[in-house]
Amino acid sequence: MEALSFADSKRLFYRRAFGSEELRYPHLEKVCHGIMEKCSGLPLALITISSLLVDQVEKDEWKRVLTTIGHALAKNPDAEDMTKILSLSYYDLPRQLRTCFLYLSIFPEDYVIAKERLVNRWIAEGFIHEEQELSAYRIGENYFNDLINRSMIQPIDVEYGQAKVCLVHDIILDYIKCKAADENFITSIDSVEHQYTLEYKIRRLCVVNKRNEKKEDSIWTSLILSHVRSLTIFGHPIQTSLLSFKALRVLDIESSRGLNDHYITTFIEKLPHLKYLRLCSYLISNLPEEIGELHYLETLDV
């Protein structure tokens, strides 16, 4: 990523933090310049930190941020020091919002994420509940907009001030994928990888299987799938039976091949706990009547 000049960095930082390209609070000038120097002109760092300081006017809070983000990013802007900045923003999120943000690691790089799909998945996972007069979906929309305002996700397709879809910056996605793996929040399997030594219970599983490689069979025999509550598949359907996923609440399959009417009938009536079901394939022409027996189903997206 190309670094900005100090003058451009200042304009970007001030615009995000103060809503103006001018410094509104003279008492913050010195610490503000110190933060910008540590960001070393890296746009993502400038946006992330300035978003964290929106509406903050206490000098002590700005000093805390300056101390936390560590050394300058000039020598290695994509590595450890950038992680420090992202960690600062990540742990500044309220706990429930942090969980919803971490959930974005389930999507591949450069993937366009629809707000409606994401919010409905949050609800099905139990991350969001109704509060007083606000519906769970409305609360989910507020979470989505909060992540945009904090510059944690990038809004796309904005109409009347509301974004319908979003993207996650590559560096941010790498960070939350590592966090999700470390916390056993999401387990990701890519068909190009071959070594899996998973001795823990898998709760949420994401499979990227674009090559339709049969050798993945050896992977499934080593995994404990009975506790999986969420399964997301990008690419070809997996080679193991979905009947192994007895506790499944969320099933999201996006496939250009292999996902057809017959495939659906092989598992649908055996997953009675489903709350969210998304089946994306041009090969689907009819849905089995057994879907009507899914009494807990809240979202059906075909």
From TrEMBL:
Residues 227-302 form the Disease resistance R13L4/SHOC-2-like LRR domain. InterPro entries: Apaf_helical, Disease_R_plants, LRR_dom_sf, LRR_R13L4/SHOC2-like, P-loop_NTPase, WH-like_DNA-bd_sf, WHD_DRP. It comes from the Eukaryota. GO terms for molecular function: ADP binding. Pfam families: LRR_14, WHD_DRP. The keyword Nucleotide-binding does not apply. Keywords: Plant defense, Repeat. This is Uncharacterized protein. It comes from Panicum hallii var. hallii. The lineage of its organism: Eukaryota, Viridiplantae, Streptophyta, Embryophyta, Tracheophyta.
